[in-house]
Design goal:
single chain, Immunoglobulin-like, mainly beta, four-stranded mixed β-sheet
Length: about 100
């Protein structure tokens, strides 16, 4: 999964792909190709009471990579966003 260059500009594509499907137990690798810091944090937006409690890459600086696991996630759909730029959104489907 990639955070795209220019993702911090509202309206630009943010994640590629923005809908990710994995099998329970898989790790999700993320690379930040933008020029500013980003995260992948579970939750629809920062007001979601579960924000960051299921998965969170923490701050990823430009050109940095991170991974998060799905072992503790039940099958289902999980919205995510960037905690720095909450308009950047996507979804993770665990099978």
């Amino acid at each position: 999964m990639t955070i795209l260059a220019g993702a911090s500009t509202q309206g630009n594509p943010a994640y590629s792909p923005d809908a990710v499907t994995v099998k329970k137990g898989d790790s999700v690798a993320v690379t930040n190709k933008d020029t500013v810091p980003h995260t992948i944090t579970n939750g629809k937006d920062p007001s979601d009471p579960k924000t960051g409690k299921l998965f969170d890459t923490s701050i990823m600086m430009p050109a940095a990579s991170a991974k998060f696991g799905t072992t503790k996630l039940a099958a289902g759909n999980y919205p995510f966003h960037c905690s720095v730029h909450p308009y950047m959104t996507g979804s993770l489907k665990v099978q």
